[in-house]
Structure prediction request, 392 residues.
Amino acid sequence: MNNFEFYSPARLVFGKGSEDNIGNLLKPYAKKILLHYGGGSIKKSGLYDRVKASLEAAGVAYCELGGVVPNPRLSLAHEGIELCRKENVELILAVGGGSVIDSAKAIAMGVYYDGDVWDMYETGKAIEKALPVAVVLTIPAAGSEASGDTVITNEEKALKYGYGSPKLRPLLSVMDPELFFTLPKNQVANGITDMMSHVFERYFTNTTEVELTDGLCETVLRTIMHNAPRVVENAEDYAAWCEIGFAGTVAHNGLVGCGRAQDWGCHNMEHELSAIYDIAHGAGLAVLTPAWMEYVWKDNVAMFVQFAVKVMGVDGSYREPELIVKEGIRRLRAFFASIGQPATLREMGIGEDRLEEMARKATHECFGQEHPIGGLKKLYWQDVLAIYKLAL
Ligand code: NZQ
Ligand code: ZN
Prediction:
């Protein structure tokens, strides 16, 4: 096990109706907040009115900024930064999913920064201060409700970059699994895929003797896969949503990655797809992950056999590890198909024409200094291109 530090202070308030108390929860922290949200689902479901009523009842003043789109844009973050400065906002409340939360985090750090907040995404430089962010989660997926990360799309440059700082971890997040009942089927599938990928990125490692976190990862994955068909079948299965919702947070709050070298190759490759083609992050991951597995498994056969047996339920008593691993990957593909995910890039309207450009961008090769991505196997641009082609 590698040395590690684990500090994940985001407070999680979980369960039916917990969002109706958001005003009281925020009152000790701020007199005035920014209410930040997306494209309208919260108005349709009535959540918007309930959150406003709770803020008003608690005497928390607010201004608002809606319009966050999936793959959240830098331009709206700029708008939010100006608004927060003008209105003396003390806290940002993100009501939505990963896109709204990530946009809130961009605004939160941009308020205290003299230059363009994009500098942080581009250079990774540390921030000293950010406004506190709180969350009412409406889709279990990105894990941003407990992570210190934010991913923003610079629409002018067609780049989608992530940035992380402990200062961006939300102060508190409210999760009421009943809010997930209104999710369309494709977003259910995207959320499930993304949270599984957050575990995969930590699970697939060359670090040995990490039995506890191996087991935590495997349990989180099995829990998600066991409950996924239930919510796909019945969008109002509260008990199943509880498991999936909590799993989504645990998948990305840092716990299951403690003491392990991590990978993040699939996420880096996917961000190139969503930056250029504006596809859903989860759908991109569903296509890339099995292709990545096929490309890298020989670099750590034991890890992939363990995955096939302990996560995908493959009989491990055969002599040929290749057959065990391939059956594991086949079952993962079948699972993604069963929840309605695409199997190929072409199904998402992505052809061969820009694969090389994306491979060079993913590894920064085109910016003059290549940083290979991935942990289990280092991936140079030629490797990334090969994986994109396998996924075509
Ligand atoms: O905008 P509205 O109208 O609210 O609709 C949203 C949006 O269209 C809809 N939706 C959300 N909750 C709903 C709902 N529709 C009906 N009922 C509800 N209860 O779902 C759509 C997708 O929302 P989005 O926030 O984009 O989804 P998600 O949570 O999957 O976030 C994806 C973003 O998170 C980033 C991704 O790259 C992507 O940009 N990530 C952020 C991470 C982080 N900050 O730690 C880590 C992840 O790896 C990921 O990269
Ligand atoms: Zn993700």
Observations:
- The chain has a mean pLDDT of 97.
- Residues 211-233 form the longest helix (23 residues).
- The CA atoms of residues 285 and 345 lie 10 Å apart.
- The radius of gyration is 20 Å.
